[in-house]
Each structure stands twice: as C-alpha cells, then as structure tokens.
Design a protein that fits this description.
There is one protein chain. With 497 residues, the protein is mainly alpha-helical. The chain folds into two domains: 5-197, Fumarase/aspartase (N-terminal domain) (Fumarase C, Chain B, domain 1, Orthogonal Bundle), CATH 1.10.275.10; 203-496, Up-down Bundle (Fumarase C, Chain A, domain 2). Helix content is 56%, strand content 3%. It contains 18 helices and six strands. It has helices at 14-22, 31-50, 75-86, 96-110, 119-130, 149-156, 172-178, 190-195, 199-229, 239-245, 248-260, 278-281, 283-305, 329-357, 378-394, 416-448, 456-468, 479-496, and strands at residues 5-7, 27-29, 90-93, 138-140, 313-314, 320-321. A two-stranded parallel sheet has the order 1-2. Helix 9 (199-229) packs antiparallel against helix 13 (283-305), helix 11 (248-260) packs across helix 13 (283-305) and helix 13 (283-305) runs antiparallel to helix 14 (329-357). 45% of the residues are buried.
C-alpha cells in the first residue's frame, strides 16, 4: 500500500508541513477528522433549516451587502456567484510549488470542521491535490483582509468546473472528467469558506521563509570564506564576547563561524590591521539578529498553519458567529520583518564584496592580476549593489498601508499578500548577492596562494565548486555563473541538513 500523509488534529510544525509539501506522497484525513467535518456540516444544515435568523454569508449577501437576505432556494447559487465574481486577480500566475502549498494549507484549515463544508467538497480538494491538478492563480489582487479573496477565488473555480489548470488547455470540466474527477459544485456556506482565509498570504510567506532559512545558512558559509580571504583576525569570534551580549542568534552564529573556520591556518598569519571592518567583525551581530527574526516569523507562520481563518465559524456550542480571523495583520507584520532581516544579509554581504575587490590587504585591484586590461570583478560589485538597493526599496513596509473597500464595511486591511510577495522578491535578490560573495571570496582566497588553507569544510566546498566552475584568470562573463553558484550553495546546504 502506498504511503499517505494523514492529516488530523495534530499541531503541525513548520518542518512537518515542509515535509508534506515537498514530498510526492498523497494526503488523506483520519477517520475522526472526516467524522468531525461531517458533524459540523450536519449541525449547520440543521441550524439553518430550523432558524429564521440571518447568518452572514450563508443566507445573506457579502461585504457591504451583508444585510441582503437571500432566499433558501438561491443559497447554492449565492456561493457560485461569490466565487465567480471574486476571481479578479491580475499579473503573472503563481508558481506550481506555491499553488500546491496554498491548496494544502486550505485543506488543513477546512479539515478542522469549523468552516462547515461538506465532506464531498473537502474530498475533491484532496483529490486534485493528490492528482497534482493545480489551478492557475494570478499573484495580485489580495488586500489581506476578508481573506485572500481574489487568489482563493481563482483556486476555487475548479470546484464548479471553471477556471484554468496549470500547463493545460481546454474546458476544465472536461479535463477533470477525463481524470475521473467531478466538480462537487457549491452549496450553502462553501464558497465563503473557500474564499475567506489567509492561505495565499501564508503560502507565499512560508515559501519565502523556507528559502530564507537556507539563505541564512549560506550567508554564514560565504561570510566565513570571506573572513579568511580578507585575512581577518579571529579575535572577534571569541566565545566570551558573544556570551556577554546574551543575544541568542549572535551566540549561535559566532559558534557556527568558529566551526566553519576550524582547521584554518590563516588566523596564524600576520595581520595588517588590529580591527577589521564592521562587515566582517559584526557578522555575528548582524546575522544573529536575522536568525532571531527568522525564529519569530516561524512562530507566527506555525500558528497560522494550525489556525482556522474562515468567517463565520461554527463554535463548540454550535454557535455560528462572525469574527475577523481572516485579517492577515500577523502575517503582514511578519512578512515585513522578514523582508528587512533577509535584506540585511545581502546588505552586509555586498560590503564584504566591496572590501575584497578594493585592492586592500595584499589582494589586487578588482581581483585581477592584470588590472587595466582586465576589469576583474569590478562590475560584480555593481550588480550586487543594484540588488541591495532594490531590496531597500522593497523593504518599505506594506503593513502600514490600508485602503477602504466595500463601501466602508472593510475599512482596514493588512496588505499581507503584498508584504509576502515583497518578502519573496527580497529572498530572490539576496540569494544572488550571496552567490556573488561566494564567487568573490573564492577568487580572492585563490589569489592568496596554495599555502593559504581555510577551514576544512570550506576547503572541501571550494574544491567541489571549482570542479563545477573552474577558475578563469582573464575577463569573462560572470553573470553566466551566478545562478550556477547559487544552485551549488543551495545543494550543499540541503545536503548538510
């Protein structure tokens, strides 16, 4: 029997979700989870059938139309209309990986039962996830309040046999039928349950956090080699210095750097300067602060993974009440914080690149043995500086913005999706800057001569890297090596986990 990831009422960790997301294994629900989903649905149907009290989004309109009561025979059409009308996204489509994660997170939230959807609808979502049938979802259009309405509407179109599927053409209903899958359509409450929620913002932020965790480890590796390449003292890594500061991230980074530089003989060489520039000497303080931020964002993301962010919700006493769990303010603030923290990894990295090409400490100008005829890595630093500057612009907080919608009913929004998209963009640029630093540090250290030995792990990585990208003394096209270098660093990092 094929292994299946069973979703139940467990408190999922970030590692759990990444493991499920990155695997090719199907998902399913525990028997108790299916029973809970069915029980909540039955309770809702009974409540609506026996009460004349209007309940938001079930037998009323939406947003500013919340006081418009809908006839019982039109409740299903209400939900279908909701999904169609809210499919207002624009821009490029999100990537398959984010789409897959978004669908997984929505399934987890709906499986709590409080959203009161039918088991048949949840089964459909699980089926398209397992069959890798992912909808085309434009990345722009969410305000991060009332849920990620537009992106989730595009995801939900498949439930009524409409919309588009990634990398396919033709009628969606026919394509699903050819796979033995039949759209469940929508009944009372279900469209709203699908559209209300933070799963698009959460998926985008989680993806950015996942990459950021890798980039943080890479930043420690690239900076360690830069320390040796620049012939820095090792005094600033003394353990007692960092224990006196009492910042957890700083203490951890300093220990990591000491480990990476273990076996280096460069610390015993004569030093030109008593103190090194901040971009080297303050690596533990800067990288450590980023690590503390990553832990904070992980905490927020983990809570949201396990949350119910729909509205209205059926509570434990079978009350159906309206709230604001769809408001993405926690995620928006976390995404803005992540932007800043990851951007700083790139900012300090670019400064080290500058120092290494600056013709200091016995290294030739721009790391070329024939300056003038050759420009060496002069423009590598230009490119890194451009990316760092873009990061600074992207770090303007999205969460401090708001705009009034729906005739004033929705008068404060989080802009969480915009914040998460910025975080993703910052990670992409930071990864390239770190690749440039690794290239620069490798070149600088190599120019020192074979008698200069760095840390054992770094030495091994350098040898592997040069097998992939050989040293070229004369001018060539560095941009051809950026992506290859980043892929190498990501692979080495993942292999060491």
């Amino acid at each position: 029997m094929k292994e299946v990831h069973i979703l139940d009422f467990s408190e999922w960790t970030l590692r759990d979700i990444i493991s499920i997301w990155k695997s090719d294994l199907p998902i399913g629900l525990s028997e108790q989870t299916w029973k809970t989903v069915a029980d909540y649905r039955n309770s809702l149907e009974e409540k609506i059938a026996t009460s004349s009290t209007p309940v938001y989004g079930i037998n009323t309109g939406f947003g500013a139309l919340c006081n418009q009561v809908i006839a019982s025979e039109e409740l299903s059409q209400l939900q279908i209309n909701l999904v169609r009308s809210h499919a207002c996204g624009t821009g490029p489509y999100i990537d398959v990986e984010t789409c897959k994660l978004m669908l997984l997170l929505k399934i987890i939230s709906l499986s709590k039962g409080n959203s009161c959807i039918r088991p048949e609808l949840l089964q459909f979502l699980i089926q398209i996830y397992n069959e890798k049938i992912f909808p085309e979802i434009p990345e722009r259009g969410s305000l991060g309040a009332s849920g990620d309405l537009a992106p989730l509407a595009h995801m939900s179109l498949l439930c009524i046999g409409e919309g588009k599927i990634i990398s396919t053409e033709g009628n969606v209903a026919d394509l699903l039928k050819s796979r033995g899958i039949h759209p469940p359509m929508l009944r009372m409450k279900e469209g709203l349950a699908l559209l209300n929620g933070t799963q698009y913002t959460l998926a985008t932020l989680l993806n950015a956090l996942y990459k950021s965790n890798s980039l943080f480890k890479i930043a420690n590796i690239t900076s360690a080699l830069s320390i040796d390449a620049f012939n820095c003292t090792m005094d600033f890594l003394n353990e007692e210095i960092h224990l006196l500061r009492k910042q957890k991230g700083q203490i951890e980074v300093s220990a990591t750097l000491r480990q990476l530089l273990s076996g280096s003989n460069i610390q015993f060489r004569s030093k030109i300067s008593v103190q090194d520039p901040y971009s080297f000497r303050c690596i533990p303080q800067v990288h450590g602060a980023t690590l503390d931020c990553l832990h904070y964002v992980e905490d927020i993301v983990t809570r949201e993974i396990n949350a119910v962010t729909d509205n209205p919700l059926m509570l434990s006493q079978q009350q159906v009440l309206s709230g604001g769990n769809f408001h993405a303010q926690p995620l928006a603030l976390a995404a803005d914080f992540l932007c800043i923290a990851v951007a700083e990894l790139a900012s300090i990295s670019e400064r080290r690149i500058y120092q290494l090409i600056n013709g200091a400490r016995g290294l030739p100008d721009f790391l070329t043995t024939d300056p003038g005829l050759n420009s060496g890595y002069m423009i590598v630093q230009y490119s890194a500086a451009s990316l760092v500057s873009q990061n600074k612009q992207l770090c303007t907080p999205a969460s401090v913005d708001s705009i009034v919608t729906s005739k004033g009913q929705e008068d404060h929004v989080s802009m969480g999706a915009n914040a998460a998209l910025k975080a993703r963009a910052v990670t992409e640029r930071t990864g390239l800057v770190l690749a440039m630093e690794w290239m620069t540090a490798c070149r600088a250290w190599q120019l020192r001569g074979v008698e200069w030995k760095t840390g054992d792990k770094l030495q091994f990585m350098f040898q592997q890297y040069r097998e992939l990208i050989p040293y070229r003394e004369k001018d060539h096209i560095p941009s051809e090596e950026f992506e290859k270098t980043l892929e190498f660093l990501m692979h080495v990092n993942s292999a060491s986990d």
